[in-house]
Every structure is written in C-alpha cells, then in structure tokens.
Amino acid sequence: DGGITQSPKYLFRKEGQNVTLSCEQNLNHDAMYWYRQDPGQGLRLIYYSQIVNDFQKGDIAEGYSVSREKKESFPLTVTSAQKNPTAFYLCASSSRDRALGELFFGEGSRLTVL
Amino acid sequence: QKEVEQNSGPLSVPEGAIASLNCTYSDRGSQSFFWYRQYSGKSPELIMSIYSNGDKEDGRFTAQLNKASQYVSLLIRDSQPSDSATYLCAVKENNNDMRFGAGTRLTVKP
C-alpha cells in the first residue's frame, strides 16, 4: 500500500546529542514537509522540499537540518542546537499540483529529551 | 505574520447534534482549504477539502468557504462520540506553504 513511513515512533535522547528521524514515501509525491507539534498546539513548519536536492526553511528551522537526496526520502536531524526538542514530529507529502495539495501524513515520531 | 485562527475549545455537543467549527485566515491569496481530524496521540487525517466559495458536502460533513470574509467552517451533522477529536484547519497559501490553525477540540457526549 502507498503511504508515508516514519521511524522511529518513539525516541529518547540525551541533551547534547543529535538524532535523525526517518521519513520515506512511496506515493510518488514531489513535495515533502516536516512539522513539529507541541501539546495543545497546532503544527509548525520546520522545513519543506518541493524537489530533490532543494529545500526551504519553514517558520522554526533553527536547530534542525534536512536533506533530500532521493524523491522518496526526507530525513530530519534534530541537532544539539535545538533548545527544546521534546515534541511530536510529523512528516508529510503532497502533489506539486497547486490545485490539489492535500497533505498526507506519516504516523509521527515522538522525541523525548532526557 | 500570516495566520490561521481557530477557537481552541473545547467544544462540547450532545450525540446527534450539529457541531460547528470555525476558522479564519489572513492570506487573501490562499486557494486551497482543508480540515483534518486528529485523535489524541495520532497523526492528522484529511476529512474535507474545499477550493471554491460555497458549501461542499461529504456524508455527515459539510465544509463552507467564504473567501471575501476569509472564513472557512466545518459542520458535522448527527455527531457521534467517535467524532470526538481535535479538528485542524489548514490553508494552502499562495506561496504553496500549508499553514495550520491550533485546532479545536471537540467532545461529543453520549
């Protein structure tokens, strides 16, 4: 079945460590996104990519990095520079057709800093 | 700062009633509008999309869009306890960014 796979679902990190969250999609979508969600809050955009080898910062990119070497994959690295990384991280993808543009989400990765 | 605003709730309705969820947005160039449902601890799932002024119905759900007023709403008829969730309004802005509201928490009481 087509979809978006995020891993790991749960991740614990010590302060000062970098961690990488995986996101893979087989929907043949060009655009991919990373959002962060904190308890009781909406989704905030971290990074997005409309095409391979290109990506743009969202509203809260500081302390995060991404790569887009393949159409199917858009990993997110949470660096030690991110001051408050404990959150629910959601990866999404969409068609580049501006008339459509629905986002399809993975199941999310919950990161806890110990 | 472009924004999407929703009442945070909680909104509580009895089973069988109509639940009305509202959303306003600031980017006048926005063309695509979406409602997502998010159960606690889960990822959002798309339930409605709307692109032109007026109403769009899908089963018990009706989305309403008024671009002049920069307003989009979601009506849920015959509300069921299984509809209890947080509903996120999302707006695809002219630069192709998808911006989300903070969500409205809905509780349907049996």
Give an account of the 3D structure.
- The complex is a heterodimer of chains A (114) and B (110).
- Chain A is mainly beta and 114 residues long.
- Chain A has no helices and 11 strands.
- Chain A has strands at 4-7, 10-13, 19-25, 31-37, 43-51, 54-57, 64-66, 76-78, 87-94, 104-105, 109-113.
- Chain A is globular and about 40 Å long.
- In chain B, strands 2, 4, 5, 9, 10 and 11 form a 6-stranded mixed sheet that branches. A 5-stranded antiparallel sheet of chain B has the order 1-3-8-7-6, with no helix packed on it.
- The N and C termini of chain B lie far apart (40 Å).
- The interface between A and B is medium-sized, with 25 and 24 residues.
Shape of chain B: globular
Structural class of chain A: mainly beta
Strand residue content of chain A: over 45%
Shape of chain A: globular
Summed up, what is this model?
The complex is a heterodimer of chains A (114) and B (110). Chain A is mainly β and 114 residues long.
Topology:
The complex is a heterodimer of chains A (114) and B (110).
Chain A: E1 4-7, E2 10-13, E3 19-25, E4 31-37, E5 43-51, E6 54-57, E7 64-66, E8 76-78, E9 87-94, E10 104-105, E11 109-113
Parallel strand pairs in A: 2-11
Antiparallel strand pairs in A: 1-3, 3-8, 4-5, 4-9, 5-6, 7-8, 9-10, 9-11
Chain B: E1 4-6, E2 11-14, E3 19-25, E4 32-38, E5 45-50, E6 54-58, E7 61-66, E8 71-76, E9 85-92, E10 98-100, E11 104-109
Task: State the main characteristics.
heterodimer; A: 4-stranded antiparallel sheet; B: 110 residues; mainly beta; 5-stranded antiparallel sheet; 11 strands
